[in-house]
Input
Amino acid sequence: MGIVLDTSALVDMERRDASLDDALKPHLDEPLVIPMVVWAELLVGVRMAATPERAARRRARLEQLRLQVPLIPFDAAIAEKYADIFADCLKNGRMIPQNDMAVAATAMQLGYHVLVSRNDESHFRSIEGLPVLTLSAS
Output
């Protein structure tokens, strides 16, 4: 299988100053991808940094990440999965953030897990058929 990296996991790694290799030890042989919506959310973090120095550090970290992990565009096939997830959420009265629907749709279309932080997994787990991995606490 592979792993779709959610913003929550990447932010958690940054806060702990953890590398991808350290954070993903049990999954190092699996392909990793970043949905374009996650990339956009990470860029917002650069723009919202408290200081220019912190913004520069975040941007450098993102550029390094982009060299290691491919970005996946939101295409027609992922849009189909997104529509399925959105409709299911409406029918069941349990809406989740739309960007997270796009992350989940990417994972489902690719047949991958989604990796989230320890604090951001419950709404992902509410999506039927979505395999969810939680970033370890260490």
